[in-house]
Amino acid sequence: MRFKRVFGLLCAASISFVLAGAASAQDKTVKIGAVFPLSGNAASAGIHAKAAIETAMDIINNAHPELGNFPLAKNAGLAGLGGAKVEVVFADNQGSPATGQNQALRLITEEKVVALTGAYQSGITLTASAIAEKYGIPFVNGESTAANLTERGFKWFFRTTPIASDFAKVYFDFLTDMKAAGAKTDTIALVHDTTEYGTSVASVITSAFKEKGMAIAEDISYVVNATDVQSQVLQLKEKKPDVVIMVAYTSDAILYSKTMQALDYKPPMIIADDSGYSDPSFIKSVGKITQGVFNRSSWSVGPPGSPTAIIADMYKKRSGDEMDDTAGRQMQAFFVLCDAIDRAGSTDPAKIQAALKAIDLKPDQLMMGYKGIKFDEKGQNTLASGVIIQLQDGEHYVSVWPKATAEKAPIMPFKGW
Amino acid sequence: MSSILVQVVVGGLLLGAVYALFSSGLTLIWGMMNIVNFAHGDFVMLGMYVAFVIWKLFGSGPLLGAPAAALVLATLGIVVYFGLIRSIMKGPMLAQILGTFGLALLLRYAVFWWFGANFLSLPEDIVGGTFDLFGIRIEASRLLAGLVALIVTGALHVLLTRTTLGSKMLAVAEDSAAAQLMGIRPDTMQAIAWAIAAGVTGIAGALIATFFYVVPTVGETLAIVAFVTVSLGGFGSVPGALVAGLLIGVIESLSAYWIGAVYKDIVVYALFLGFLWFRPQGLMGKS
Amino acid sequence: MRRLLWPSVALALAIAYPLLFSTPFQQRLGALVLLYAIAASAWNIVGGYAGQVSVGHVVFFGCGAYAAMGAYSHFALSPLVGIPAGIAASVAIAAVIGVPTLRLSGHYFSMATIAVAELVRLIVSDTDYLGGGVGLSGPTVPRNVFDLSFISALPYYYLFLTVLVLTLGITWWMADSRMGFYLRAIRDSERAARSLGAPASRIKLYAFMLSAGLTSVSGTLYAAMFGFVDPESGLGILISVKMLIMAALGGAGLLFGPLVGAAILVPLEEISNNLLGGNGAGLTFIVYGAIIVLIARFQPGGILTLLMRLSAKPGKTPDISSAAGAPHAP
Question: Cα angle vertex A244, ends A243, A250, to 5°?
């Protein structure tokens, strides 16, 4: 009897030894799940996100001394885990909150990812991160801006991107500076769609401006993916606001630019809220007739040879498109997540969570123009911020505000075509 | 009337003509075969991509793009008819929705696979930019689309009411067994109908591409408008689709201007439902 | 007794499924099949049995989903409250829109229901109380079991299975009653049914209201499982189309048609997405679309009619005349 038991123990030990050996070999790669819209209406954003994360993987997994002190670049793999490589499993949320959650579950339980990132649309980030919360897996989001995401009391959800209240502050400060410089900013029109993104950004801007005594004179809302926007443009043409703030996805942004040109309407100043106006296909399609549009962004290419310029170049080689703010924010979130894993020195979700809570990155450790990365108790990055960029030549955005970091001075009025 | 209001109405009419243009193919199939083509929006989308490819390859606008799109789509129409429609017509109405919905996904994502998901666009001056007419801004591209809508509607109407081919097609639509007894081959007639309908839809796509963006999912945006236009006009009525398209265009523009853009579709759907209450067969449909 | 054989086998298999396929994803997949089968079976009452092809059923699905999330967001109640609330709202809405739209025949009815659905979606997108474009979410951290917020898919699975059995039971009872007889008569020829004294308008309306109430339950269950609803995911036309194609693919107008359709389409959709979705080339939908096209092309009456034909003894014609897809029996 005893012999049998000893033999059993021996067997068990040898099996666990083999398993442990296998496990330590597996530790050489760190699996991360990425849920993005790779089909459906938002597919173009999702596919850019995929290219951005693949670029980041290249930077992390291979030695890139040319990036200088950029975190995780210098040596191959994650130093904190003995040079372990990062592997990303991509999943398509198909633009559906249900699919997003199903895929998050699959990545956690079948692919055994140690952390998640995604999922672009706020509604899908909401459902996908709910599953991560239940399983106790860190979820780092870089681009969804709905305010309620960090108001749920989640312990495993972290967000690096600035949100609507941050944008509103940027717009207000920018307009105040422009007014001081002599631009007319008395009447403001706000054009936005009725999606979660459009309504939430618009309502935050409206209330933030109101608080500071600046009223929105004209609020024009429309249904996303419009077949026609002539009436909206004519309303603007009639009301002649000094400033038009556009909150629009790519489809509508393209249509607005085309229609403004066709109806010969040039407001003195257009400020776009990132999104559609940052999409490289927007610039390719209608950049030439939207010259001088201001845009909110946290991304700036920087001088040649700088880490950001090199990253932008790598990204362009991979995706075929110019780097834009949305892809940049996603990439930054992924870097933050990998940085936390590296610091944790472990793939244990709880240790990654602790590392994320403790993270304190400085601006020179980031590719985006944030003031840093430091999460509050809700998981929101308190140092997220944005700058104002301008499409001066119709092909490339340059940063024009704040003055301290601006590449060029803002040009007024809106040139159009 | 203020000049802005005139501009709104003119814009609405031109928009409506475009709605009519991309609905005429749908109404033809609907009337001829009592088939609702859920892939219609994606046929329009294919027409737009053909126009884009023609512009990329030869730098030419709809003068070459529209005929090319008509040719490509007409061929596709025949293939779809013989490959799919002919069999599902024997089944229940649900099979048509099932089959054409699957076809829609197939076409949309085949294009997605080939061209990617990026938004594409033709240069805005490809048909000659924009001109002023008594202070009203008119886009040449939209005007061209509007004119073609009128021509296509007229041509289809003449085809169906004044030509032997048209009467043969209508005979098949009316009673395919009886038509067969009279020596008309229903298969041939229906294949021709599919070719014409798809070809016209291709032309519509090629013309819309001159002032709209091009993306694989664009068909979804346009399909519902086409459905409403066709039902409002009366299934199978080509002139009905024209009137309905113009009506919807003007109502959309005016309600967007007066009440607010966010309400324009609500107004259109509500009026459409109210109208069906009084006239269930549409504007010019047979009861 | 013979006709109870296959349903019992199916039920036994359904009860055993999560034990045989026990990974979280497989269990969730099973739950999803049941969830969509509930919705498609509910649709089947009016779309299959009565032959009124509604493309607006998402309105009722949305009622259930919004009732569940609204009960939680506004009154801190369990999403389960959405079941009675959603049913009440759906039946009322069905009565209001059914009276005018059910007069319309064939495609006009389909188009009118699409317009209703879009109208509701647009109005909800602009209604702050219902969350507008942002949508409503459910309990993030479950307070008790009635919040229906579980990690495992097992509770959902058996809950959905119970509801599905009830739905199918109601459908079976209805189909076997006088009402079912009238509905089939109306589907085959409304004029003939009327001339034989069937109160066609009233019967169609009853079927519409019954179908709406059951569809609403599926919406509530959906929202409880995913914890979120917004205008696109709760009221988008695609959901109506999904109910329709599942019923059509399995066999509309057959009791088990929608279940068969869901059991084919849901795994097809999820698994093709698992395997192909990550590469971002749209291959998922090429495969999915192609398979739907092939089924429509070669089996326009639905998969179940094929199974019935195959399982019928040679030399004996199977009774498929009750299928909407089969050539109509005189």
Answer: 150
Mutation target vs C (from B98, B107, B232; most C CBs, 10 A cutoff): B98
From the candidates B119, B121, B253, B257, which should be mutated to test the interface with A, based on the most A CB atoms within 10 A? B119
* Cβ separation A90–C280 shorter than 8 A: yes
Contacting residues of C for A193, CB less than 8 Å apart: 133
State the smallest CA–CA distance between residue B261 and chain A in angstroms.
Answer: 5
| Residue C250 forms part of a structural domain | yes
- The answer to whether A231 contacts chain B (CB < 8 Å) is yes
Phi and psi at A85, nearest 5°, equal -90, 155
Residue C152 is assigned to a structural domain of this protein = yes
Which pLDDT value is given to residue A327?
Answer: 94
Q: What are chain C's partners, defined as 3 or more CB pairs within 8 angstroms? A: A, B
pTM for the model stands at 0.91
Bridge pairing between strands B120-121 and B213-214: antiparallel
Reported as type and span, the H/E element at residue B101 is helix B93-115
Q: How many domains does chain C have?
A: 1
What does the CA dihedral C155, C159, C162, C164 come to, rounded to 10 degrees?
-120
Residues of chain A below pLDDT 70: 1-27
Helix or strand (DSSP H, E) at A272 = strand A269-272
Q: Please state the separation of Cα C170 from the chain's center in Å.
A: 14
Contact at CB, A220 and B261, closer than 8 angstroms = yes
Partners of B112 on chain C (C-beta within 8 Å) are 281-282, 285
Q: In the sheet where A188-193 sits, what is the strand order?
A: A216-222, A188-193, A243-247, A269-272, A294-297, A387-391, A397-401
pLDDT per position as a tens digit, B84-116:
999 998 888 889 899 999 999 999 999 999 999
Q: What is the mean pLDDT of residues B144-159?
A: 92
A109–C24 C-beta distance less than 8 A: yes
pLDDT at A18: 43
Query: Around Cβ B138, how many Cβ atoms within 10 Å?
Result: 19
**Bridge partners, B139 (sequence order):** B130
Q: Nearest residue of B to residue C328 by CA position?
A: B92
> How far does the CA of residue C98 sit from the closest CA of chain A (Å)?
27
Q: Do A251 and B124 touch (CB under 8 A)?
A: no
Tokens of C113: 């229901």
Distance CA A124, CA A39 (A): 14
- Look at the block and give the residue holding tokens 């489809």: A251
Count H helices, E strands: chain B?
A: 12, 4
Q: Which of A194, A230, A251 sits opposite B262 (nearest CB)?
A: A194
Kindly determine whether residue B235 and residue C296, on different chains, have CB atoms separated by under 8 Å. Answer: no
CATH number at residue C171: 1.10.3470
Asked if residue C330 is part of any domain, the answer here is no
Residue with tokens 């990425």: A34
Give the residues across from B111 on adjacent strands: none
Position A19 scores a pLDDT of: 44
On the 0-12 / 13-18 / 19+ scale of CB atoms within 10 A, C161 is buried
Q: Report domain extents, chain B.
A: 3-278
**Angle value at C-alpha A406, between A271 and A65, nearest 5 degrees:** 115
User: How do residues C31-58 score in pLDDT, each as one tens digit?
Assistant: 999 999 999 999 999 999 999 999 999 9
Is A81 strand, coil or helix? helix
Instruction: Give the mean pLDDT of B17-35.
Output: 89
Residue with tokens 């666990």: A16
Q: What percent of chain C has pLDDT over 90?
A: 68
Judge whether B281 is closer than 8 Å to chain A, CB to CB.
Answer: no
Taking domain B3-278, whether its CATH number is 1.10.3470 is answered by yes
Mean pLDDT on B62-77 = 96
* Inside any domain, residue C329: no
Contacts with C100 from chain B: Cβ below 8 Å: 273, 276-277
Residues of the domain holding C166? 2-324
Nearest chain A residue to C140 by CA distance is: A152
